[in-house]
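Below is a filled-in request sheet from our internal design queue. Each sheet records the structural input a requester submitted and the sequence that came back. We keep these sheets so that new team members can see what a complete request looks like end to end.

REQUESTER: design group, bay 2
PRIORITY: normal
MODE: inverse folding
CHAIN LENGTH: 477
BACKBONE (tokenized):
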């Protein structure tokens, strides 16, 4: 059988592509590398979608206009973003939710602990796992063919034209393809190669934890690189979060995140601070801290808070190290007590009087301290004290395939007529670095829907051309 559209991948972007292509009348085969129980890639660990809106909408309050969304994205990426594609994603985020509901996705108002994103993010009822399951049910009902345990390890491509996908000795032929198979974060050898050795003689990737799926090995991306596809991005840039050092190697998900950084101080193994903990709201900065920790010796850091911070952030899954005094805490964290106390005392002395409010960028800051803490700076002085060891948690990589607003894949600057990409494999076009909560799902949803639509159109064109050629050949005969 020759399918109209083959979708490689099984997460949000892949499912959006498959559904859109099927709605357009195409026959669709979805190849998911994982077993059925682990289907959905990193999308199963998500919670919400960042949405543009000009007025209150169902679960979203107030307004979050295009320009504010764009400025938020511009700020976290430091300008390393394609504005045309970024604005496309932003606009698509304002119109996708009705379509999502049609396929069984339900939304809920944000709960306690997430109210600060009630204006910007729409939360999935039941989280990402429920979203993924809803899409799979809809895909099955619409007649999408789905194969699990089917990691694509090669592609047949002729002059930039997709011919077939290969899974071991099995070959699946299609008129078009959507590559929505994630990044390469689960491939520790590739991560080790990309990050190399640091100034401490370490290979940082050896200490990375993978927040999401173990199945994103980057095999298809490697194939596309071999075939000469145009790529973009830095192989070391990723959605990289400072997570609990006790998290599992794979699939720790969102519950391993520690959200108290902005309410305390973070020190490295030398017991010294190395960045502004209060630079911005945590949803706009949490993905920065993983990379910051990755650059420290041992890829380890420690967030320290006092009792004043308790109840002001999402409680972690694992209890932290608790001590009645700061020297005792330093000892329990295996930090040099003298250096640790100097760091904390210098910080406490630099804190300026202000009105603390963790819901806004308040006027509590440090003076004459490097690095500064620009908001939410309060002395660490009320016991008991809490410490949490941090490690870098990689969610997905940003290096991937260059695409355009049709989600087309390119070879030597020329768009393939029937190859498209969506999700993490093309997210770097919008995210050169940094992250802001929910934008990954916005990118995957926008480009997934576009890629599915374009793949169905490409398949129809190719079939029409083949029919015409067959007709000519028959007439000549």
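RETURNED SEQUENCE:
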């Amino acid at each position: 059988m020759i399918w109209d559209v083959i979708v490689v991948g099984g997460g949000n972007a892949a499912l959006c592509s498959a559904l859109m292509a099927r709605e357009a009348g195409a026959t669709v085969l979805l190849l998911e590398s994982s077993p059925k129980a682990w289907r959905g890639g990193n999308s199963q660990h998500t919670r919400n979608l960042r949405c543009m809106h000009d007025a209150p909408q169902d679960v979203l309050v107030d307004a979050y206009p295009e320009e504010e969304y764009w400025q938020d994205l511009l700020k976290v990426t430091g300008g390393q973003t394609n504005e045309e594609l970024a604005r496309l994603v932003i606009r698509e985020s304002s119109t996708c939710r009705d379509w999502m509901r049609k396929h069984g996705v339900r939304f809920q108002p944000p709960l306690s602990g997430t109210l600060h994103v009630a204006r910007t993010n729409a939360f999935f009822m039941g989280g990402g796992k429920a979203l993924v399951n809803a899409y799979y049910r809809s895909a099955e009902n619409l007649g999408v063919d789905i194969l699990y345990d089917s990691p694509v390890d090669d592609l047949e491509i002729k002059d930039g034209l997709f011919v077939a996908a290969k899974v071991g000795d099995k070959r699946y032929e299609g008129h078009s393809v959507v590559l929505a198979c994630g990044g390469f974060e689960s491939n520790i050898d590739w991560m080790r190669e990309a990050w190399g050795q640091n100034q401490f003689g370490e290979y940082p990737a050896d200490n990375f934890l993978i927040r999401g799926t173990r199945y994103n090995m980057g095999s298809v991306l490697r194939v596309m690189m071999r075939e000469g596809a145009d790529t973009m991005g830095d192989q070391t840039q990723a959605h990289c979060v400072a997570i609990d050092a006790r998290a599992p190697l794979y699939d720790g998900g969102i519950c391993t995140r520690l959200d108290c950084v902005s309410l305390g101080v973070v020190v490295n193994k030398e017991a010294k601070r190395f960045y502004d903990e209060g630079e911005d709201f945590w949803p706009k900065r949490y993905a920065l801290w993983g990379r910051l920790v990755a650059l420290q010796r041992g890829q380890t850091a420690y967030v320290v808070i006092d009792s004043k911070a308790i109840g002001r952030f999402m409680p972690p899954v694992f209890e932290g190290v608790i001590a009645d005094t700061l020297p005792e805490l330093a000892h329990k964290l295996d930090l040099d007590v003298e250096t640790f106390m100097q760091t904390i005392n210098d910080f406490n002395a630099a804190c300026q009087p202000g009105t603390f409010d963790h819901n806004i960028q308040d006027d509590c800051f440090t003076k004459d301290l490097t690095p500064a803490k620009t908001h939410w700076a309060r002395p660490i002085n009320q016991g008991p004290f809490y410490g949490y060891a941090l490690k870098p948690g990689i969610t997905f990589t940003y290096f991937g395939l260059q695409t355009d607003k049709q989600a087309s894949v390119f070879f030597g600057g020329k768009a393939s007529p029937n190859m498209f990409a969506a999700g993490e494999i093309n997210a770097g076009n919008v995210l050169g670095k940094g992250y802001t909560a929910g934008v990954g799902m916005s990118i995957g949803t926008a480009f997934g829907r576009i890629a599915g639509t374009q793949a169905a159109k490409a398949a129809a064109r190719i079939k029409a051309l083949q029919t015409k050629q067959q007709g000519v050949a028959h007439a000549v005969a």
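SHEET NOTES:
- The longest helix spans residues 439-476.
- The first strand starts at residue 2 and ends at 8.
FILED BY: M.R.
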